[in-house]
Hints:
5-stranded mixed sheet; D-Maltodextrin-Binding Protein, domain 2; phenylalanine biosynthesis; amino-acid biosynthesis; alpha/beta; 3 domains; prephenate dehydratase; lyase; 15 strands; prephenate dehydratase activity
Amino acid sequence: xxxxxxxxxxxxxxxxxxxxxxxxxxxxxxxxxxxxxxxxxxxxxxxxxxxxxxxxxxxxxxxxxxxxxxxxxxxxxxxxxxxxxxxxxxxxxxxxxxxxxxxxxxxxxxxxxxxxxxxxxxxxxxxxxxxxxxxxxxxxxxxxxxxxxxxxxxxxxxxxxxxxxxxxxxxxxxxxxxxxxxxxxxxxxxxxxxxxxxxxxxxxxxxxxxxxxxxxxxxxxxxxxxxxxxxxxxxxxxxxxxxxxxxxxxxxxxxxxxxxxxxxxxxxxxxxxxxxxxxxxxxxx
Length: 285
C-alpha cells in the first residue's frame, strides 16, 4: 500500500494537483482544512502534508503562518504549481447560460477580470473542488465553478472557458511538511533554511537581529510578520534564507539572531525549487 500525502480540499483541488505533480508515488489524502491536513501528518495518517502558503496574484494564504509554528512538523520541500483557472459547468451548459460562479475567495480574486467582463455573481465557497462537486450535483445551467481541469474530470463537468486567470504566470507555492526534519540533502543550486522567530522587546531589536545576515553575506529571500494571539505588541516573523544550517556563515548569522530573539525555531531545510528563480518572459506561459 502506498504512503499518503495530505492536502486541504477535496479531490480535484489544486492541492490535489500539487500532490500528483510533486509526489506521484503517494496517495493523495483530502482534508477539509489545513489544520486537518497537518493533524493527519502529525498522527501518522499521512507521511507528508502539501500546504499552500502563497499565491503570486493573491498573496499569502491566510492563517497558514499561524499554523506552522505549532504544527510540530518540518518543511522538507517546496512545490510551485502553475494555477490554471477554468470555468466549469454542467454538461449541456454554455458560457452564455452562466449567471453565478462559485469558488474560494482566493480563487475568485485571481480571475476578477473574467468575472467582471461576464457580469457574474460570485458565491464564496469553502473549497474549489467542493464548488465543482456542488455545481455537478445541482445541475443548474446558470451556475458554474472556478476550479482545475482535474476537478472537471472528477465530477463530470465541462470546461466552458479555459485559463481565465488574470495573470498568465499565476502560481501557488506549497510547502511539503513531514514529522521529521531532513538536513541531509543538498540541492543542485541553493538550499533554503526556513525559521520562525520573535524579537526581544528592546529598541531596534529587529534591525539588530537582521544585521547578522548582512555581515555574513546571507541572502534573505522572505521575511513576513504577523501578530501573535491578536496582540499588537507581540510580533512573530517567518523568514527564509539561502544556505544550510551547517554552513559556517549561516551558523554565525543564526547565533547573532538568537541573541536578539526570545524565540527562534528552525522550520525546515530544503533544496530551492528551480521555479523560485524563474523570471517572467514576454508572451510566456
